[in-house]
Amino acid sequence: METTAAFIGLSCVDCDASFDASEATHRCPDCGGILDPTYDYDAVDVTREELASRRGGQFRFEELLPFGRDVAVTMYEGDTPLVPAPRLAEELGVAEVYVKDEGRNPTGSFKDRGQALAVTAAVQHGAEDVALASAGNAGQAAAAYAARAGLDSHVFLPSRASFVNKAMVNVHGGEMKIVEGRIDDAGEAYEAAMDDNPAWYSLQTFVTPYRHEGKKTMYYEIAEQLDWETPDHVVYPTGGGVGLVGMYKAAREFADLGFTEGTPAFWAAQAEGCAPIAKAFEEGRDVHEAWEVPDTICGGIEIPDPGASPWILEALRESDGGAVATSDEEIMSSTVTVAQNEGLEMGVTCSAAASGAWQLAQEDRFDEDDTVVLLNTATGNKDADVARSHLMSKGL
Ligand SMILES: *Cc1c(COP(=O)(O)O)cnc(C)c1O
Ligand SMILES: [Zn+2]
Predict the structure, then answer these.
(1) How far is ligand 1, taken at its centre, from the CA of residue 239, in Å?
(2) Domains in the chain: how many in total?
(3) CATH code of 278's domain
(4) Which position among 151, 175, 261, 280 has the lowest Cβ density within 10 Å, counted as fewest Cβ atoms?
(5) How many CA atoms lie within 13 A of 264 on its CB side?
(6) 195-222 burial: b if 16+ Cβ within 10 Å, else e
């Protein structure tokens, strides 16, 4: 296994046990907890100018990733623009709003960052098959990166996953299993198949230690694009919290390395129809309760039972951020407002970040000289049908 110089191995977020990455591949062998890649930051030998001068996607941050550019399974995902949204800034009453436009990734969502790293790990471990259950975008990204690496992929999607996601899993040559119901039903089918196929390598959220690690690079780029100024707020459409946990880790790493100061306030934006993180935050709890009847149009964040909630809630509290939930109606209206006022095509799921930011502005959480970053986690094109139906329901 070929790893980078500063990469130490994997550490369990629950029991603190450490493992060599060539031995532990997924959850903690001792307690079943989530494993997190660790580094010797003193051995990270690179300047921020050197990082910024490189081209070629997220693996230019290789000193802070487990695997380097020479072994990466990559399509140059990342290097997405941070686009100013001046009209939004005016409406929110803040100095600047930026949209980190992750729709510009190879398969149209930020899931590419996590899957690029997780599929790289799969190759390093000698896997031939990869598998996961997904609401849609992660499955599409997994099929794409598996194709690039020459692996077979097995993707379990709920029947309500979008047409684009299903079609593209097929186009990439993945084996697709459509499961009646929602993400949890797809998850059960995936687990049964994993039991029958012990050699399959899991690319499942927080089962592989590498998806949050890949999504970390979103924050590295944001910091760099803001000329190494830490933004005041980052608002993130939150389902399993993979990106949020990753970005919080990245912010602390950059602060430790002296590249930036402090961390932004991280805000988890959810949909009212499935808001286990927002509810747990509001009630001051350290862990969520599973949401009983998830019901939102935002498939990408309809995660009723996010297993990493203690870690997410800790990131929200430690960063002085929080959580917010808005209705599907407000979320879809935000998609349209941003498209009409800024020209930017936000995914419907992602607009939870925009409508969440509106809500936070109304609650006076922002100051007038603040910089706010919204994550557009996927391209609006993927949700054209939903956004269009919303207009039609208004007679437009
Ligand atoms: C997966 C997904 C999310 C949620 O990501 P997490 O990091 O698991 O919270 C948000 N938006 C879109 C478009 C997604 O596909
Ligand atoms: Zn453990």
Answers:
(1) 6
(2) 1
(3) 3.40.50.1100
(4) 261
(5) 29
(6) eeeeebbbbbbbbbbbbbbbbbbbbbbb
CA of 30 to the centre of ligand 2 (A): 5
* Residue 138 maps to a domain: no
- What is the model's pLDDT at position 396? 82
pLDDT of residue 22: 95
Distance in Å, CA 16 to ligand 2 centroid:
6
Nearest CA to ligand 1 atom 15: 300
Determine which residue's CA is closest to atom 4 belonging to ligand 1. 239
For a substitution probing ligand 1, which of 351, 377, 381, 383 has the most ligand atoms within 8 Å of its CB?
Answer: 377
C-beta of 377 in contact with ligand 1 (< 6 A): yes
What is the value of pTM for the model shown?
A: 0.97
Query: Ligand 2 center to residue 15 CA distance, Å?
Result: 4
Structural domain including 289 reads 82-106+211-393
Considering the chain, what is the average pLDDT of its residues?
97
| Gap from CA of 124 to ligand 1 centroid (Å) | 26
Residue 184 lies in a domain: no
What's the burial of 384, exposed, middle or buried (CB within 10 Å: 0-12/13-18/19+)?
middle
List CB-based neighbours of ion ligand 2 within 5 Å: 12, 14-15, 17, 28, 30-31, 33
Percent of all residues in the chain with a pLDDT value above 70, rounded to a whole number = 100
- Looking at the CA of residue 134, tell me the nearest atom of ligand 1: 1
